[in-house]
Design a protein that fits this description.
Blueprint (H helix, E strand, L loop, with lengths): L1 H16 L5 H9 L1 E3 L19 E9 L2 E10 L3 E4 L6 E4 L5 E3 L2 E2 L9 E4 L4 E10 L7 E5 L17 E7 H6 L9
Parallel strand pairs: 1-8
Antiparallel strand pairs: 2-3, 3-9, 4-8, 5-6, 5-10, 7-9, 10-11
Amino acid sequence: MKRVVLFVLLSLPLMTYAQKFTEYDRKVFNEGQVLDESDVQFASDEIPWSPISPIKLYHIHDEGDETIVTFSHSIYFDSQWVNFSKSIYVKDEDTGDIYKVRGYTDGLTMDRLLIVNGCKGKNILVSLRFPKFKRKVKRISIYSPGHKDDIKPSNDRDIKVFAENADVKKMRKLYKLPKVYK
């Protein structure tokens, strides 16, 4: 029994880092938006790094007529795709109001994948713009049902829910954002 457990433990890192690339993946990679360590902001050290649950709601704040929703995204490869769908939306759990994503905050486009280089083992911040939430919004859930025009790699995990019943007031205060996001 001990040999089996040891074998499983020793083989886990190999399984975690194995990727198969297709011609489609190479095309998507060549057309992607490349971000290096100097191009990204990092999450607070309080956020645990997690390859199992890589995307976590990090912070919410308002900017003009928009609400900015920031996620912490765990990076586990030296060069990794980061995929947020064009169909992401926020649902007000009390009223049922829907807020559809407008795009990234930093001018990147959602019609090309983000490729993050040099951030292995770190949590980066990714911020998305939404229409400004009404003042009465207290609890939200964030969904990503997928869009027919989404560009995603062949090994995409296709996460459907980024947050459930998140407390908006708490998320506005929880973590401090780097100045570049304020």
